[in-house]
Amino acid sequence: MSELDEFYQWIITSPNLIEQSKLCSNLNALKPSPVAPDTEYHGNYRLGFVYQHLCTQAFINSPHYQLLAEEIQLSEQGRTLGAIDLIVHNLAQDITEHWEVAIKFYLLHKGHWYGPNAHDQLELKLPHMVNHQLQMSQSDAFKQQCPELNVNSHHLLLQGRLYINPFNHEIVPSHCLDFKLNSSQINGYWCHYSQAHQIKETLYALPKVRWATGKLPDSPIVEPNPQRFIHAQTDSGRFWFVVPDAWPEQNA
Prior knowledge:
Blueprint: H1 3-13, H2 47-60, E1 65-76, E2 79-90, E3 95-109, E4 112-114, H3 122-133, H4 140-145, E5 153-164, E6 175-176, E7 179-180, E8 186-192, E9 204-205, E10 230-233, E11 239-243
Parallel strand pairs: 3-5, 5-8, 8-11
Antiparallel strand pairs: 1-2, 2-3, 3-4, 6-7, 9-10, 10-11
């Protein structure tokens, strides 16, 4: 199985970081065909771009959906409003859906969920996706630019992993804002560099494209670095972030 196909399979089978609801969805209903064995990706290889590309392919390969538009750039009076990820037609229900998709990895610290880049926080990302990104398909700018697309429902797909520090014994919240977290996705570990000696397993380096799916048999061993974060996996399958001691106050 190719790296892209492995990531694709992870996307179409993994749950949302947020408990399933009318708004927070997963891709189980798509039942898409696999990506073609000779499929190549020639776009930006940053994780978020690869992820969105594969989400789009899942809708294209689904017998239950039709892709109508993707990455619609909206502006109003010269001001950029943002981009709409996906507009699709649900063939079974005969409705048009707006989907915003993202892959994120958050570490619990003093009651807040931070990304490895600590400027990225789940408490900020969720309301932005719900109150700004998903609302763009109701804006005048969208209706003027895409009058043929009448959106009937909105869906948030936020996948990834949530990490706790086993050496700090912090109470893990069940919610973020008013959203119930999916407890099955709180399955990663993290620690500061000064705590890393307590990790009893070998750490294997993960390039970003494998942050979701995990290491290869020949993945290189990695040592924690006091100056930058590392993301790794152990032989037992546990995912680990090790971050500088100054994180998150001083960003990694």
